[in-house]
Each structure stands twice: as C-alpha cells, then as structure tokens.
Design goal:
By secondary structure, the protein is mainly α. It has helices at 32-35, 37-43, 62-68, 70-81, 84-99, 116-124, 130-133, 184-198, 208-216; strands at 20-23, 102-105, 111-113.
Length: 223
C-alpha cells in the first residue's frame, strides 16, 4: 500500500533513497485515460523538454483555438506569459520534486516525473506569491486521489489547493462518490483534449511550444 505524503514533509536527513510513487486513477470513460494530462505526460516522457514534439496533424487557427478550447487556450496563453523569474521557479519546483523522490505512476504502472503542467499551474495560480506556489501539498494532489491524511491531524503545514484550478476544497485527482472528478477544470480539460485530438490537431502535450506560440498571437478580426 502506498501511503499518502506531502512533498515538503520529507527532509534530506529523513529521506529514504527509494522513490515514492503513487498510482494514477483510471477514468470511467474508456478513452479518458489516454487523453488525460497524466497519460499524455507518459507518452511524452521520451520527448525533449526544451522543444515541441512532432508537428500537429494540422495547425489550429488562433481564434478557433480560443473559442472551441477555452481551458486549453488559457493554459497555453498563461504558459507563454510567464516571466523569467516565474519560469525559473517552475524549474526549481520540478527539481525539488525530483530531489524529494516524488514521482507519479500512470494507469499502467509506468513511473514518470511529475509533468511540467503541474508546476506551471501552481505558479500561474500563485503569481503574487511564488514562495506559496512552491509549497503546494503534493499529498493532496497525488494521483491516488485520497487527499492529505496529515491535514486533519495538524501534521501538514503546507498549502492545500488543487494544483490545476487553485481551489482549496480538493486535489486535482480527487473524485466524487459517483466516480466523477471533483475538479471542474480537469473535467473540462479532458473533454477539450479529446475533441482537440478528434479534430485532427494532434496530441497537445506533444506540441506544447507550438500551441503556446499560437496562444500568444493577437486575436484576428473577422468580417
């Protein structure tokens, strides 16, 4: 059994050399596991982190991207607006996770590093306080979806908010009693990403730099 833990609860002196991993939840929808940010991170694990993956099957026009895929558009727009200091903090957070031996397991038990979108979102959600963004509880946001079992006992002093939407009443992968995702933004992302792929635009997680460039373009006027 993999116990729940908070990233920052591990000090260098107390940290064990073995990796701490958590299992990714399977979605009730047959295709959602393959279209989720988590599954996409697994498929992109061998892709360079400094450049986009294979070209999308077709370039999506900027206005259509914003109108039909607003949640995705906003993410890539915010990603493109990060300052040098914010980008540095994103990298620092990712390095801290690696140093703390905090990894994710996909639905098929593949161990992967926590993807960039998590670090980007916690910084976007905490632009006015980058230190707070680096103290997000990763127990609350682990892929098991159990939440932080240290909070109720007063043993976790770290920031408890969803790593995706920033709300404080749930973690990104927590589910309701009926099996649906608590996070509305996550549900919308799944829907948009599925439609994006079905539209012939490729896998967004393999074309993040391309989509960021498209989102940075000014909105064109239409007759």
């Amino acid at each position: 059994i993999v116990s729940s833990y908070c990233l920052a609860c591990f000090s260098p002196a107390a940290r064990r050399p073995s990796r701490k991993t958590v299992m990714a939840p399977k979605s009730d929808a047959p295709s959602s596991a393959d279209s989720s940010p988590l599954a996409a991170a697994s498929s992109a694990a061998s892709t360079s982190a400094t450049g986009p993956g294979p070209q999308a099957q077709g370039f999506i026009e900027r206005n259509r991207f914003e109108d039909e895929f607003p949640v995705m558009f906003k993410f890539y727009s915010e990603r493109g607006k990060l300052s040098e200091a914010q980008l540095q903090k994103v990298q620092e957070i990712q390095q801290r996770w690696k140093a703390g031996c905090v990894y994710w397991l996909t639905h098929d038990n593949q161990e992967i590093e926590i993807p960039e979108w998590v670090a980007v979102n916690v910084i976007v959600n905490n632009k006015q306080n980058l230190v707070r963004g680096s103290r997000i509880c990763m127990s609350l946001n682990h892929t098991k979806g159990y939440g932080c079992n240290r909070l109720a006992d007063g043993m976790c002093s770290y920031v408890h908010e969803c790593a995706l939407c920033g709300q404080v009443d749930h973690g990104v992968f927590q589910k309701k009693g009926n099996g649906s995702w608590v996070c509305t933004k996550l549900r919308k992302w799944y829907d948009e990403e599925t439609r994006f792929k079905a539209g012939g635009f490729g896998d967004p997680r393999m074309n993040e730099d391309l989509l960021t460039d498209i989102a940075k373009q000014p909105r064109s006027s239409r007759a």
